[in-house]
Amino acid sequence: MGEPEAGSEFAMRAAAAGPMADAQYILPNDIGVFSLDCREAFRLLSPTERLYAHHLSRAAWYGGLAVLLQTSPEAPYIYALLSRLFRAQDPDQLRQLALAEGLTEEEYQAFLVYAAGIYSNMGNYKSFGDTKFVPNLPKEKLERVILGSKAAGQHPEEVRSLWQTCGELMFSLEPRLRHLGLGKEGITTYFSGDCTMEDAKLAQDFLDSQNLSAYNTRLFKGVLEDGQPCYEVRLASVLGAEPALHSEMTSKLKSYEFRGSHFQVTRGDYAPILQKVVEHLEKAKAYAANSRQEQMLAQYIESFTQGSIEAHKRGSRFWIQDKGPIVESYIGFIESYRDPFGSRGEFEGFVAMVNKAMSAKFECLVASAEQLLKELPWPPAFEKDKFLTPDFTSLDVLTFSGSGIPAGINIPNYDDLRQTDGFKNVSLGNVLAVAYATQREKLTFLEEEDKDLYIRWKGPSFDVQVGLHELLGHGSGKLFVQDEKGAFNFDQETVINPETGEQIQSWYRSGETWDSKFSTIASSYEECRAESVGLYLCLNPQVLEIFGFKGADAEDVIYVNWLNMVRAGLLALEFYTPETSSWRQAHMQARFVILRVLLEAGEGLVTVTPTTGADGRPDARVRLDRDKIRPVGKPALERFLRKLQVLKSTGDVAGGRALYEGYAAVTDAPPECFLTLRDTVLLRKESRKLIVQPNTRLEGSEVQLLEYEASAAGLIRSFSERFPEDGPELEEVLIQLATADARFWRFPSENPSGQA
């Protein structure tokens, strides 16, 4: 048994908890819950395609459990506790017990919403904003439900032990635990609790020196007998320390001395979870549509077995070459948004089916891409030597595991592949449909006369923005690189920096990547560049015509797209933490930066005005002068975009930080007084929607699609039925893995002010 000891040190560092939490740290009972509709797309799959999709989905769902171990020390225990609870009694059955134990209907609903939030975010921190959320009911009442449950009756010691390990931490809002972060800034399990930003920088330099990627690693710090620091760089893999056949990884698994510190490269992180991933990828291979898919899966299997990012890159090459598959998927340690240093990838896996009507529009956009790239405001030398025509499809998601579901994706994230092999763009149509759902009464910070227009055109304008953002935003621009042999991929004599009028003074050296060089600002900076490209190119009539908009409709799409961006810039303040002067969400920081750029353009293009709402509480209004978008907004965006690209191409970290952090600074300087406006935004914020995903089940040789109602209880049921064969075993594995590393997050409790 891997149950944690009751009253362990791990649990005792959490502060005692009171009854209710600040609204910023709870999910409200009326949170929007929507089902992901993919029934028609799934119906159109052949039996073989369904089997392929099923096994890929199983691999994705198993791998997604690793996110619990990548989020917080207590997340795996909370997941295990909830899963045991709801396996023994479904939400309706548990409700009867809760009411008998003295909970009100509202308190029980608050518990269901909390549980749904844990499953949606794969942990107890919001995937969008990295803020902790806690149950919105008294701890003593939740304890009565848990200890009085059928699960506790069946396994009293196990359930009590789990509660004693994670109950305090579930509710604690001790300052350090309110947000994900590094060192004293927050909590993260990508690094042991005693790691600082300096340790993260040293480790990145070490990884670069050994040509190792950080994507599938975690960093654990210790101290040698002589008092010198030592670091374990642990790779995610099925194989651990056991002798293995020689692979490209085995020579890397050893001790190193680097700048006076000791580094040990090990592997085997998440091993039992990745074993399940590999088993289903093997099964999926039997139903692959072509040899590229087979080779892709073989390389993913090698990557997850050995801990090799190079194998994942090889798999990604085959994936890029697999054009227009009926069933599209990607899996691995992908996005680095939640690593406080910006280099380590969170596990995600998606499986989706092609939406042919929307994909046809995106294909037209791809066909126009080379021409549209010339419209971007930087010299040709700063664009890729050859535009590698990518796949761009609209997909209906069947499965998206990880901590959240995006609306669009441009992957892979490996710089070298993007420059030489290309990439794929994906717009997730049924996710966008959820995002479009807007209730007029919940539409904040807009003028009354803008609201109906906004509701009508938000969906179509978002299609345009996502298309441009992914294809021509993330898909554009060149990095200037000097390879290991000293050769440059640009002409040092003739290429001129348009910002300085001089030759290029800086570039990327062998082993350096965009993420490793720009680290903490890399994700947000790149999202800002892509969003800016979308705004800039949506002014092009040719683009709007591809999506079917002309004349007055086209002008409305432009207006709502720009209006949506400046409103989002104001909403972004929810994701800023004044106490640490830090941003918690890359896309929202990017949108705030764009708002600042457009405000700086002046001439009344954009105004943000504090007001008083009809309810007598503080409010605000965002106004955009549609007649000034082209004469004032476009030139401002042009200047900003050129600077962003030049600094990115040349690897000018100092210049990039100065520019980006300057615009991202949140102050109370007039006229906007953003710190004060942040209070208004928090007062009127709407929680991000929760999405219920279906399951697939193999019955004989046929795959069935299992759908669930759009409610917190439906979302919980979807997870209760997600692992029918081995749920208890998986929870045991998670508990064992979390307990084995718990010592890395035992630090003295800080001032427990602000408890839940």
TrEMBL record:
* Superkingdom, taxonomy of origin: Eukaryota
State the needed cofactors, names only: Zn(2+)
Q: Which UniProt keywords apply?
A: Acetylation, Aminopeptidase, Cytoplasm, Hydrolase, Metal-binding, Metalloprotease, Protease, Zinc
Q: Which InterPro entries match?
A: Dipeptidyl-peptase3 (IPR005317), Peptidase_M49 (IPR039461)
Its GO biological process annotations read: proteolysis
The active-site annotation reads 470
Q: Name one Pfam family in it.
A: Peptidase_M49
From the record, give the transmembrane residue ranges: none
Q: What class of enzyme is it?
A: hydrolase
Catalytic activity of the protein: Release of an N-terminal dipeptide from a peptide comprising four or more residues, with broad specificity. Also acts on dipeptidyl 2-naphthylamides
Task: Kindly state what the record says about how the cofactor is bound.
Answer: Binds 1 zinc ion per subunit.
Q: Which GO terms describe its cellular component?
A: cytoplasm
Q: Which residues bind Zn(2+)?
A: 469, 474, 527
User: What family does this chain come from, according to its entry?
Assistant: Belongs to the peptidase M49 family.
**What's the protein called, per UniProt?**
Dipeptidyl peptidase 3
